[in-house]
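Hey, I'm writing a tutorial for new members on how sequence and structure tokens pair up, and I'd like a real worked example in the thread rather than a made-up one. If someone can provide the structure for the chain below, I'll link this post from the tutorial.
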Amino acid sequence: MSSEAWHQLFSNVAVFVPDQDLAKMQALVRALEAAAALSDYREKVLSWAPSTARLDPGPAGAFMGYDFHLGDDGPRLIEINTNAGGAFLNAILVRAQKRCCGGATNELWTEDFDREVIRQFESEWRAQRGSRRLETIAIVDDQPEEQYLYPEFRLAQRLLQRGGIETHILSPKDFQLNNGVLYGNGKRIDLVYNRLVDFGLEAPDHATLRAAWSEGGAVITPNPHIHALFANKRNLAVLSDQTTLREWGLSAENAELLRQSIPRTQLVDAANGEELWRQRRQLFFKPVAGHGSKGVYKGSKLTKSAFARILESDYIAQTYVPPSERLVMVDDEREMLKVDVRLYTYRGELLLAAARLYRGQTTNFRTPGGGFAPVLLKQT
């Protein structure tokens, strides 16, 4: 990665988050975990998931990511990710902030990030394999050296190897499945840290990983089952439906928290197309199978031709929640950039909080002055 590209990974400002907003975001994560445990909820969301998602060997999903916009009425959940990038990069920022800002960061990440990362992967391993020691991990993505966040893969590799776990960065084509055991470049792989955006492992190029998943040839985290429970964008239509969640057994407190914190979400189809077009200025349209903000449309900028394509595709419509903003200096000029906040969690517990600053309708790493930013807690 060039020095210019590396520079645009990070903003040079911090983002201040009220302590009550952090508390509410953490409570919402726990409420979502409670909803995902309901049998009726699972039946519903697995009904529209790929067949590979029905297998549940036990892991809970490493590095869950919950993305929020912060407003005067509190945090609003925008998206859930099961392959959330940036945690290892943001750990560098937090360590730098701790040196200068001390206690303002203490509640925004786990006490010992490196130790908790190791524990997270060991927990994923034990959930499926029991007590045998975790020895090898493969960090996997398509053409990993060409990925924008490849530096993070190297940071993860070094951290895991310091923890005594042999770690490789591999492409799906590097795998072989022999006698029900996954190998990568000839080395037995115990656990796959999955950074692919083929969430169901359905692509032909991922056939070996798909077979390892279905046959138990390796522990894979995050995996198709966890994506289906949490990160399929259709699920937001269920999670924003308080009445249905209460009927399925979610507590009144958790159902109300989800109602307050998740923008109303609808599945887009021909039947509600006319109504959605009329309401489009208050909506944000996202492809169900999208990732990295590809194919999204802000309703206020939507053309009829683009909306026609949406109706022919698989989309959700979400009530638009504007992001907060942060003043930055760019080339000696003051500029307001948009902000979102991400919580990285494991089994509902916070690993790290971070922010992203950007210009445009979606997050990106092309904005001068933007990028990942450390989060500091503001007492209220």
